[in-house]
Here is the input.
Amino acid sequence: MKLNVDGLLVYFPYDYIYPEQFSYMLELKRALDAKGHCLLEMPSGTGKTTTLLSLIVAYMKAHPLDLTKLVYCSRTVPEIEKVMEELRKLMNYYEKEMGMEQNILGLALSSRKNLCIHPSVSKEREGKVVDGRCYSLTASFVRARHAADDAVPICEFYEGFDAHGKEFPLPPGVYNLDDLKEYGQTKRWCPYFLARHTITHANIVVYSYHYLLDPKIAEVVSKEISKSSVVVFDEAHNIDNVCIDSMSVKITKRLLDKCSNSITILETTISNMKENDSKRLEKEYKRLVEGLRDATIARETDMALVNPVLPSEILEEAVPGTIRTAEHFVAFLKRVVEYIKTRLRVQHVVQESPAGFLRDIHTKVCIDRKPLRFTAERLASLIRTLEISDLTDFSPLVTVSHFATLVSTYTKGFTIIIEPFEDRAPTVSNPILYFSCLDSSIAIKPVFNRFQTVVITSGTLSPLDMYPKILDFHPVIMTSFTMTLARPCILPMIVSKGNDQVAMSSRYETREDTAVIRNYGNLLVEVAAAVPDGIVCFFTSYLYLETIVSSWYDQGIIDQLQRHKLLFIETQDAAETSLALINYIKACDNGRGAVLLSVARGKVSEGIDFDHHLGRAVLMFGIPYVYTQSRILRARLEYLRDQFQIRENDFLTFDAMRHAAQCLGRCMRGKTDYGIMVLADKRFSRADKRSKLPKWIQEHLKDTNCNLSTEECVQICKRWLRQMAQPFSREDQLGISLLTLEQLQSEEMQKKIQQRAQGV
Amino acid sequence: MEDYQTCPKCKTTKYRNPAMVLMVNACGHALCESCVELLFAKGSGACPECKCPLRRNNFRVQLFEDPAVDKEVDIRKRILKEFNKRQEDFPTLREYNDYLEEVETIIFNLVFDIDPAGTNKMIDNYKKENKDITQKNRNRQSQEEMELEELLEAEKAQQSEKANLYVNAELEEKKQKHKAREKLIDELMFSDADAKSIVASHVQATAALAKEQPKAAAQPSSGVVKSSKFSSGVQIGLRGQHTNSFLPIPKQEDLPLYRYTAPVFDYDGPPPPAIEKLGKLNYFANIRAANITERAGGYTEAMSCCRALQEALGGLFYSPQLTHKTAVLATNSSTQDTDDMETT
Here is the structure.
């Protein structure tokens, strides 16, 4: 249908629209008009993706000068594919309505692993190996060598792309990963490089977070995206953690040993080259003396080594004299690695600021800050000069060089923690150096500064005001939308006590209490008896899950449970978990019914949907707080408190509740779906926890359902399930939670939508 | 799996003897402590590996896994004591970088025994030439070091301050909560008011308190000075921008515009002729004309003549009563009533 959103003609590819989708468009349009950033929360299953795409495409069509590009960031490959499907639907609709080819080019980008069509390289399983092998076939010097000697293998697809692909732009249309591969096969062009080349002039780009947030990758891939773009981060509730991970470095003893090996390789290569071909080293040396930036850096295939964020004025400067010649630099690297090795030889945990580390490295091995800052850049240059084609071995050394560069560049917002052993195994020596980023705003700041509009959206972003604080930006729009429903199809309940009136809680003090564990077990058994099909349970940690299951086994609860449903458990092993998932789905599909025990923050809680019969009930056993004794977390909490005035407890609760909301949201994937949400912990009913749940859940959480016992909970479930089991057709929804164009345009509905927009 | 440190002489490993300590000397070869005691009982001897003469006093505990690095660091420390020029001592960055590379080459040569004679000569030459600068720089910290020290101190200060602050704040909060609860119970026990209204007012009061709390927590931290100039020049977050911004220019209040009015002189006598007319009226006939040097400064005879005339004519009409009245009139004409009083 064609909509009029605040004066903008929007083509919406469906015949019906949800009212919240329309309000979402209104808010989004306002943000685009204001050229500011926005934060939008809308429940999952209400068609966020379509809404976003149709509005932004319409906006691009209406204001081609103000908005040139849409960059859509998602988390996983399946999610990227889903977005591409929606986009294709939208484009088809445009074509049908306008009756001609649309001049819009949309494409998905993923790693080489997902896009490679080289017959042998594409067989590799690991992403790193594919990258390394691709580099060894396409690097500029390999190709130069090939020109001299035909025996040197190269990639024919890259050659094809290089020879012809750059002149012929990709014809307009929508390309997902498979389409790109197919197009590459027919033309004999490399799809990966084709996609990367096309990014600069495509209208819509869909790729993973890392291409924008990880400074090492963003530098190469997303450098040329213009300012007048809109960037969308979908499923962004964990965006702060992604930012932090992209700037953090972890160094283990094994990694350092590998570094020593690669340094030896470097040494021998240098001495060989000195004997045979000293000209190249001299050339590099001269360039470094002149302080010229590497000219070859622009060559797109030599991307494997890129330095982390450095201010541009440093990049312009010449490399300091101490590390100018290759031998000196290798000796320098050796000292750095040896120094870090001595630091790892500790008996107790050490926490240090970057400034302290710099001072110590200066006194111990006489390394100044400035050469340290150039380490990553210099290493990249050296590897390029030495023409080392197998990069996979060098990744540990690259990691250390990144660490050196980061530690000497940023003195604020980072901390160094050296742990001699893991907390769980204090007798096994396993020293690890964590260089941990504490400030999630550092990595995302360039994105906010560079693009005119950044949209952060997810099904669960509550409490909204936390995100601007921890990401340090000023949104122009910050809105949470609820779901309009024709029937109360979610039933959130807080169960705080068992039938014996013993309070249920995963508090540390009561964790081992058999009464609590038994009450949790009874709750699950009774719910399993009352609820049809699939039930998903979430525990706070793997450890907790294991202890509870083992004591349930002793108490005979597992036997009772298996009388009603089959039981599956998520483990830390990915393959095992996916097998359990497949069988769980099978059991639900054939009507046997099943229970899946899994862990909040685990693989199941993020990204796997249990729609309809796959998840009729979600049980949350306890509040999923993070492991608060972790030193990295402690350091981060302290930093948040000092820099952003966020109190420790506030952040911990915020973090726990966003994960709880994620888990609960698993069972609701649309308006025809229905599901029970049981929060089994006394503490959930406190105001500070309850108020942090997303609005669309809070709305349905009545005061009477906030302090239930097991028996009451089951009673309510039974009544509600009977109600939900009644036939429910589209006609029931129409006019309330589903609108036709006429209904949308009716004055009454417009008024309602206006009210809703203002009410939040 | 891990290859343990081994003494090359007696083959003891760290695994078999956890107390074993490896030592290194100037040549960069390791020996365990007991071997050192055994071989160097006389105070000096030859290295068992490279046969170079060593003193026992020079043995130190091996710090790094690779003894060669220990050796290099030793040499480096020695050399850098002499070669301690700073960037400030050079006119351009390029020259400084060249100097750095030269130092690095010297160290590299010493470590790998390349051309020892030439290198030592170079060092001696340098020592002679740069005695003054070396001496001066020894007592001076480089800018970078100073920055680091400053930063560390700031961190320390901030940490202790913060720790105290938050502990106090938390204690205070707890106390307040406790007090509020006790007050509520007291009121419920002893007052005659409706229990519901008491509870309601209590809830209101705690809500108001909770609102205040975050503000109170926010205040103290603003007192800590943030040094944003140091870290790479990239300011972290938006906070940096506020500290740099200019204060807005204070806005002027809306006053009426200034307008010039010519001053009125009261001579109390006949008006003197205007300065331009003096020449025409032939006043200059009786006074000395200004010479060239006087005219150069802009002086003319008209000035002194005019001054003299003003002085001569001024005050001729003076009479005590009259001046009193005019003075009053001139100063404040607004105070009419006092004026009337005096005339009457």
About this structure: Chain A touches chain B through 53 residues (CB under 8 Å).
